[in-house]
Amino acid sequence: MKFAIALFAAPHLPASRRALRFAQAALAGGHEIVRLFFYQDGVHSAASNVVTPQDELDLPGEWREFVTGNGLDAVVCIAAALRRGVLNDEEALRYSRPAANLEAPWELSGLGQLHEAAQQADRLICFGGQ
């Protein structure tokens, strides 16, 4: 089965951990993930400057390892990211910000990427949100 996964929840919320565990289980079960889409507060999972306390699970780090290790297509909604200060080098330069905090493997793009993923997948699974 082909899955598109959308994460709306911040990294400290249970939905983020559930999304990661679901994605790991899907691949382990022989399924395909056509795209991971990070939206709303889920964009914080892609920020490279998140510092997780030592006694907590580092979900942004785990997401990065998971995406990189499996060569997945991981898209961060550009509108949600800009609103929350999550910028790649290009956007930091465009908006005259002093630093970027979004690095590979993440890609900034629009909601059209979520729509496209939903069309390619057998199932769109969403975690978090309101």
Automatic annotation (TrEMBL):
Broad EC category: transferase
Species in which this protein is naturally found: Ectopseudomonas khazarica
Name this protein carries in UniProt: Sulfurtransferase complex subunit TusD
UniProt xrefs under Pfam families: DsrE
Source domain of life: Bacteria
Places the protein is found: Cytoplasm
SUPFAM superfamilies (UniProt xref): DsrEFH-like
Keyword Transferase appears in the UniProt entry: yes
Molecular function in Gene Ontology: transferase activity
NCBIfam families in UniProt: PRK00207.1, sulf_tusD_dsrE
Family membership noted in the UniProt record: Belongs to the DsrE/TusD family.
Keyword 4Fe-4S found: no
EC number(s) per entry: 2.8.1.-
Keyword list, A-Z: Cytoplasm, Transferase
